[in-house]
Fold this protein.
Amino acid sequence: MWTAEQLTTLADTQPRTLVPIILAMQTRLQSLESRGALHSQNSSKPPSSDGYLKPAPKSLREKSGRKPGGQNGHPGSTLRPTPSPDDVMTHPLTACPCGCGKDLRRLPLVRYERRQVFDLPDIRLAVTEHRAEVKICPCCTREQVAPFPQGVNAPAQYGPRFKSWLSYWRHQQLLPLDRLAQMCQDLLGQPVSEATIQGVEVELDAALAPFEARLRDLLRQAPLAHFDETGVRVAGRLHWLHGASTDALTWYGVHAKRGSKAMDEFGILPRFHGRAVHDCLESYFRYRCDHGTCNAHLLRELVFMDEVLHEPWARPLRRLLLSMLQAVRARGPEPLSRRRIAACTRRYRALVAKGLRRHPRQDPIPRRRGRPRQSKAHNLLCRLHHHEISVLAFLHDPSVPFTNNLIERDLRMSKVQQKISGTFRTLAGARRFARIRAYISTARKNRCNILDGLSAALQHQPFMPRAHA
């Protein structure tokens, strides 16, 4: 790298046309070197992109000083006997086991010692035959058949409990079609075709249409919601899985676009008036609501600025954000004092201004169209400057989370699905997966049994989340 003194000397001894060329080459070299230093711990790249040369684990959290593992007073959990066992086996004591051989069969019983074994019973499908009476009416002289129960429509069919079992393994445990069919054969002795499993998926998707409509209405009314998006492969092309979630709700939608066009079509953000927590994608700021950014993304970028580019303002700014978080958590639901907030804000602005002085905006290049390319440091500092209110929202309001981890955890299962299956064959199949996964995630957040919830949905009585308190 050329220093400022070397460039000044070069400008005095060489034609001035060489200086901008060298500067451009130096900038490009730094860009290429920094690109190679990016990994999952100092950028937004996923851990799967690290390859075999994974960096050593390094948490962004400050050390608490406590030992790892369960802390003192932690209740723990273990397998405990049940007061109502399903079966009881009594083992009589007929002779003394000490070696004397005394007959004990007629002696009175003192007590029982109990031990319980938890195990699975034999698994098999139970077949219920419905017989509808057929009689001849003496009035009309025609054969009349008693009505079958609702849902009993074919000479042989699967019931809602077994269908919900298939849906659970397919969409909660993410088993591929062929492995799920094989599991039915191995565990139940019942061959189930892949077409049957897909038919259950189509049936469940149609039954969940009222649930999704209810879900969107509740998310529009939420005081705070998390938003994010991640790439998915659909029919061999890149699409985007959009997500919105609260502590009690999860929604997904699949679209070919990532930005505001998709968000407008989904219709949640255009009618949302609470606080939207997201990863600072510019499309989110188009919507007229309060905003909060994911500061975990910012911390990773500051790690890159500090450890790779050796920017002097990056480490103090990262420590400042973490100290703000620690102070907010120490206060609990009570907000910080105005004096403390003002002091933190002044320090924040001073560090951002220091960085911007080192990385000013690049002027447009004559006779070249488009905006000039800015450095990574300048772009990060501009985000920290222009979106200060959103970045420090957690400092002013303790109810605003510091990160966007809630929706990122909700989106994680879609990445697992892609690792298993690679892609969705059709857009309709991807959207069915999104709707069913949203139902499962919402039911789990509300402590609803997943199997019971799926069974109720297949009987057109899906679990419906309640409005916010």
Remarks:
- The beta strands are 134-136, 143-145, 224-234, 237-245, 250-255, 275-278, 290-293.
- The mean pLDDT is 87.
- The longest strand covers residues 224-234.
